[in-house]
């Protein structure tokens, strides 16, 4: 045995000892179990490593992304992966930076009243300190507008730190769904139609049935006048809007 060790040392040949993959810290969330969704989850799982950030709407066409994001979150608890921390946070339209920080901080035990009473500027270093030396993935659900990662305290994902950011947005989901139903042939028929189409999609209030029905109805509408007429008709309807105008 000693001779074998001596021979290995003299030749400098050593087998690499495999390292155990670190356990991912992830909070498993309750989620519905829709039928025939696993193939879609696998599609997202295979895509998530390709960019530092990405939208599920751009990956999947914008249908049921909250459920998909939650299932993706839970998959990290059972499937080997490279991340040390998985953070899921609901952003929503009425969420400010402080609320986002509270939801993220809960992953690290920052949940007592003394921490919640801190200012945004005081919370950011705590979150940054908890993440700065870890490979993490942040899942932001229902994003309505751009979030300043520095203000929240999230280190910017990069190739160097290997971290990622994935998000869902209702406005993007609505447009992707509507665009898919109208089709590129109609949208590209006139340079002004895409902007008018976005106004029509916005008037649908994020309602999938309205987006699908009106999208199908607009497939054959290839003039500016027809699109402007559709916008005027929708203004008279009681459909909720995505944003205040």
TrEMBL record:
Entries under InterPro entries matching the protein: Apaf_helical (IPR042197), NB-ARC (IPR002182), P-loop_NTPase (IPR027417), Plant_NBS-LRR (IPR050905)
Superkingdom of origin: Eukaryota
Domain NB-ARC stretches: 61-173
Any single biological process term in GO: defense response
Spans through the membrane: none
GO MF annotation: an example: ATP binding
Pfam families to which the protein is assigned, alphabetical: NB-ARC (PF00931)
Keywords per UniProt: ATP-binding, Nucleotide-binding, Plant defense
Alphabetical list of PANTHER family matching this protein: NB-ARC DOMAIN-CONTAINING PROTEIN, NB-ARC DOMAIN-CONTAINING PROTEIN-RELATED
The name this protein goes by in its record: NB-ARC domain-containing protein
Organism listed in the record: Gossypium gossypioides (Mexican cotton)
Upper classification of the organism: Eukaryota, Viridiplantae, Streptophyta, Embryophyta, Tracheophyta
């Amino acid at each position: 045995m000693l001779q074998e060790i001596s021979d290995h040392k003299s030749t400098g040949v050593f087998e690499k000892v495999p390292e155990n993959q670190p356990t991912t810290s992830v909070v498993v969330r309750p989620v519905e179990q829709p039928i025939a969704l696993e193939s879609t989850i696998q599609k997202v799982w295979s895509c998530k490593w390709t960019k530092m950030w990405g939208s599920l709407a751009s990956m999947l066409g914008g249908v049921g992304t909250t459920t998909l994001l939650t299932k993706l979150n839970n998959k990290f608890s059972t499937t080997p992966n490279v991340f040390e921390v998985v953070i899921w946070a609901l952003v929503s339209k009425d969420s400010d930076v402080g609320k986002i920080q509270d939801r993220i901080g809960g992953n690290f035990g920052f949940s007592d009243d003394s921490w919640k009473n801190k200012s945004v500027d005081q919370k950011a270093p705590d979150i940054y300190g908890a993440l700065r030396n870890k490979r993490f993935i942040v899942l932001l659900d229902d994003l309505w507008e751009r979030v300043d990662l520095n203000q929240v305290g999230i280190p910017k994902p990069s190739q160097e730190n290997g971290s990622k950011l994935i998000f869902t947005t209702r406005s993007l989901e609505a447009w992707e769904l509507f665009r898919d139903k109208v089709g590129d042939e109609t949208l590209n028929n006139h340079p002004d139609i895409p902007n008018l189409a976005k106004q029509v999609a916005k008037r649908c209030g994020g309602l999938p049935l309205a987006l699908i029905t009106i999208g199908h109805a607009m497939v054959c509408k290839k003039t500016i006048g027809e699109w402007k007429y559709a916008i005027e008709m929708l203004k008279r309807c009681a459909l909720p809007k995505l944003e205040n105008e």
